Amino acid sequence: MKKYLLATTFAALSAPAFAGPSCTPPETAMPVWQVIRNFEEQGGEVVKFKIDDACYEIYGRIGGKKVEIYFDPATGKEIERNES
């Protein structure tokens, strides 16, 4: 039983906490400032912006909630949203 518990604990700790979507780098990307401006016009506040796996990511707040939003770099459209 100890071996099983140890193996499952190790597997859980070695896995990433959250894996976001993966984007394909476009030939022509939407400007970063435009994605940020669209987010702010919808009432969002940007805390951090980054590009990871070719996706645009905004970490910020909307209406007092923390959000992590992934955008398609080609179109600027939201792909995934996580709120806490």
Verbal overview:
By secondary structure, the protein is of the alpha+beta class. It has a single domain (20-83), classed as Nuclear Transport Factor 2, Chain: A, CATH 3.10.450.40. 27% of the residues lie in helices and 36% in strands. The chain has two helices and four strands; from the N terminus they run ααββββ. The protein has helices spanning 2-14, 32-41, and strands at 44-52, 55-62, 65-71, 78-83. A four-stranded antiparallel beta sheet has the order 1-2-3-4, with helices on one face. The longest helix is centred in the first third of the chain and has 13 residues, at 2-14. The radius of gyration is 17 Å and the shape is globular.
Order of SSEs: HHEEEE
Backbone shape = globular
What is the count of β-strands? 4
Mean pLDDT: 83
CATH architecture: Roll
Assembly state here?
A: single chain
Number of domains: 1
- CATH fold call: Nuclear Transport Factor 2, Chain: A
Number of helices: 2
SS-derived structural category: alpha+beta
**Percent in helix:** 25-40%
- What radius of gyration results from the CA coordinates? 17 Å
Major beta sheet, specifics? Answer: 4 strands, antiparallel
| Strands side by side in the biggest sheet | 1-2-3-4
**Percentage of residues in strands:** 35-45%
Task: Spell out the key features of this protein.
alpha+beta, 84 residues, 4 strands, 36% strand, 4-stranded antiparallel β-sheet, single chain, 2 helices, Nuclear Transport Factor 2, Chain: A, globular, disordered N terminus
Q: Quick summary of this structure?
A:
With 84 residues, this protein is α+β, with helices and mostly antiparallel strands. It has 2 helices and 4 strands.
